[in-house]
Amino acid sequence: MSDAPAQTPAMEVQEEAQISVKDPEAFAAKYMPDLGHDVKDFKVFSWPINGWKKLEKKLTSPDFECGGHKWRILLFPFGNSNAPPNDTVSVYLDYADPKKSPEGWHACAQFALVISNPHDPTIYTVSHAHHRFIAEECDWGFTRFSELRKLFSVQEPHTRPTVENESAEITVFVRVLEDPTGVLWHNFVNYDSKKETGCVGLKNQGATCYMNSLLQSLYCTHYFRKAVYQIPTEDDHPSESVSLALQRVFYHLQTSDRSVGTTELTRSFGWTSLDSFLQHDVQEFSRVLLDKLESKMKGTKAEGAINKLFVGKMKSYIRCIDVNFESSRVEEFNDLQLNVKGMKNLYESFKDYVAVETLDGENKYQAEGHGLQDAKKGIIFESFPPVLHLQLKRFEYDVQRDAMVKINDRHEFPFEIDLDEFLDESADRSSPWVYKLHGVLVHSGDLHGGHYFALIKPDKDKRWLKFDDDRVTPVTDKEVLEENFGGEPLNGVPTAYQRTQVRAMKRFTNAYMLVYIRESAIDEVLPPFSEEDTPAHLKRRLDEERMQIEAKKREREEQHLFLTAKVITDETFSQHEGFDLASFDDKNWPASEVPSFRVLKQETYHVFKGRVAEHFGLPANQIRLWVLVNRQNKTVRPDTPIPENEPTLTVEVIRNNMGVRQTDLRLYLDIIPDPAKPELPSQSVMIFLKCFDASQQKLFGAGKLYMTRNSKLGDLVPLINERMRWAPNTPLKLWEEIKPGMIEILKQKLSFAQCEIQDGDIVCFQVDISESQAQELEASGMDSNPVKYYDFLQNRVMITFRPKLEEPSDTHPEFPLVLSKKQNYDAMSMKVADYLHHDSIKLRFTTTNHQNYQPKHILKRSLNQSISDIIQPTYINAGTTVILYEKLDVSIVELETKRSLRVVWTGIHNKEEGTFPFLLPKTSMVHDLTEHLAKQVTLSSGGTGRIRVFEISKDGKSQKEFTGSEMIGNIPDPVELYAEEIPHEEAEADDSDKVISVFHFSRELSRTHGVPFKFVLKRGEKFADTKKRLSARLGAPKDFGKYRFALIQVSTFKQPSYIEDEDAIYEHQFAPEDVLGLDHVDKSGKARGGEKAIVIRG
Fold this sequence. Notes:
Elements: E1 6-7, E2 13-14, H1 24-31, E3 39-49, E4 59-60, E5 64-66, E6 69-76, E7 88-95, E8 107-116, E9 124-133, E10 139-147, H2 148-152, E11 168-177, H3 193-197, H4 209-219, H5 222-229, H6 242-255, H7 263-268, H8 282-297, H9 305-310, E12 312-320, E13 326-333, E14 335-339, H10 346-353, E15 357-359, E16 365-367, E17 371-373, E18 375-383, E19 387-393, E20 395-398, E21 403-406, E22 416-418, E23 434-446, E24 449-456, E25 465-468, E26 471-474, H11 477-480, H12 495-501, H13 503-506, E27 509-518, H14 522-525, H15 536-557, E28 562-568, H16 570-575, E29 596-600, H17 605-616, E30 623-630, E31 636-641, H18 651-657, E32 665-671, E33 684-693, E34 698-708, H19 716-724, E35 732-739, E36 742-745, E37 762-767, H20 771-779, H21 786-795, E38 796-803, E39 815-820, H22 825-836, E40 843-848, E41 855-858, H23 867-870, E42 881-887, H24 892-895, E43 898-905, E44 914-921, H25 926-936, E45 947-952, E46 959-961, E47 977-981, H26 984-987, E48 994-1002, E49 1004-1017, H27 1023-1033, E50 1044-1048, E51 1057-1058, E52 1075-1079
């Protein structure tokens, strides 16, 4: 027990003479609010205190028992603060002797501590709290329980003080509460989901909790998991195959002891990391994922599993009242969307779903062969699937606010529901249609975000669990139902307490999706899961990966025992173009690829040298290793050969004593020409040579030479000519590469000693060229000597050029170029133009955001900025600077008088066939644009040849057509233009036809996608025939059978009114904004609503 127990802010109450401390039931009722948990035991313990001012600093009361635990009061009569003034009293409830309790013990207690007058129990000060007592937190209470002066003085309206004649009574009221889940008030430090529940969670990638909750629900549906495992994936790659990635997630959930990542799965969907930070609609995600898996299951053992599990049938009907006529259509459904608003519970929502509408009066039904008739219109179910997904419509359109809002109304749902009464008379009733609750997916928050988690009963005999991203905890029945009904909490907590503790948390937390399993199918849907159900190839593959991960983990843990040795050879030097012998820490350039060795620090040099020799295929006695050091001028050069005559010399000692100021050990491999003479030549220096080739504009390593210190620099010339196979008398110029920015010419008459040249120094040579040759090189933008070229190397930067408007291709490649930060826009433009074989004046460049490479600023040619200014900020590493380019048909200068426009062509069948760029004088009319477009697109043979140019309305539901006489310079920027071929049907429509707008959406009206179009309605035509013409207008899409059709009355803000085959929508009195909506899944990923559509590609 610590001397500084944990504390709760004191809620001090100086009470009037009403309730007595000696009346425990009344006292507890007033000061200990009902927290909504069952009480295991309730005890009151009193402890008299005398001679207060002479008490010890710290006292403990006798022990008392409550709820199977021993407790005591801990009192600091003058405060539990190390610093004066000691003017307060500190009181705590203390768990007595925690060391004798079993490991992992805990007790959840609610308590009130009271100091009262020993003669008048209505004079007191009280504070209450609740706490989970554990070994690490075995005392809890109030450091500032009360000021001493208040206890010792008379307080209004009393006539006596609380502590009278230095005597008082300290009482504690303790309720030990039941903790059926074992996690009540848990702080979840070191919590182990697997140990406590047998299950593990899924990691959240940013905003993927909606996905995690659904995946856990599907994983716990054993039949579904088995079906996913039956998809053949032996030859798949996880980041490209949804099936394999999902199998891997499921297998990890089965076998892992820790939470499981989903990055691989989202990557297989084709999602970027940005997609993982966008919250999506769970119902849409569910539909898209199941569609994808259904297609993957075709032709495999698992074919039909998704339909068998999740698909039911409903019948939409119109039944005449007075004549024997019925029009009906049977449709399949994967899930049901049920109304919450105005519905008390799930039963009422089902009643509402099948509610019958009477068509009479002006709304009579046109029955084929019977004329206008009174009729009943409704929906009845033919069958429900074994696993029933119910989407509760928590998000709806609010007319007053003109926006989507979240419905937080109370809506109750049961553990069991009988759906028999909602079935057609002809339904198969051989087994009862009783459904048991299996999963509750919960949303906590509002329309614009929040958090998702799932409550699932993994099989019929297990307890309910809460899957909240990476944490899985047991939950009570109340937490499954009551806490997710929505509305205000109904747990009897007093209002003041509720306001601070409960309401804020609960108010926006409610169920939005329910999973029910048919009772008669539970054994088939949730069969026991065995080892054989997991594919052997998956187990083998993942076990191998797990072993590799363990090996890497061990490697990381043992990292401190190893160091990395990097070895430069003459070959790596010859390929290096830059300063020193290799590139290690250049911020603007990638590091050189040099052979690396992971070496035990305690390995002897003799053993290590043998490994290096073996790696390079050389005898150990033919190599000498030099240590590279960081010189004070920030260059990295060979400094000293490692001594061969110290058998106990370790690699760590070499690194620490010889390779100072570096973590890695950097070495140069020196090959000894004659192993019989291993010693270095006497009085020699090791000189490295670099050749500058002016005609090729290249600098490269040309090996090394040993020269005596007193020989002349000019003595290098014949040796270099021989090495380079040049004529013996070829004149050379020599420079010393001292450091970046310091390249000095060498006088060939001086000796190496006079020039202070030492081991590891670099001499750069160039064939001497005439003044005229030098001028010629300079005139063509090349460097005539190494000094200038070294300056280029010091300022070089690699920039990736990427097409701005197209995907990279042969005609619009993505490519890197090396430029100097000192060069300007014109030089960059020329280099890019040379690469692309395009006129530099007809190139336009745009900088990008260095985090996501999105376009930032168009570069102005007139400013002719330096590359340094263009690529700001300068700290970006090489290879990450991206500049976008556009190939223009006209010069940038001309652009200023012209307007650049792009038109998306949707042809005759409302499909985005291509995007066409145009650059036209700003004074051109839209009809000029139409003429240019007509020359580039393919119009249908025998078509009207007429083109309509339009924008899409803000809500995505209709076209805003141009008349043709608008001047393109006046069209606001930015603009998305579309064009389509006007079909004969529309061009030839007469006064009896109606031309309406049609748009695409996915379930919610706000989730529009695709491009709206015009369509002709014919008088008297049944919708069954209208659909055929719609299909033809859209080019007969494959999934047209899954489309649903709705009449959208914008002015009345009605929910979509779905159309039956027998309807004749021509008869509807169309207001200007009324439109026809095509409800189908968006497979383009180009949703127009506020939320990006979910697309799964893998």
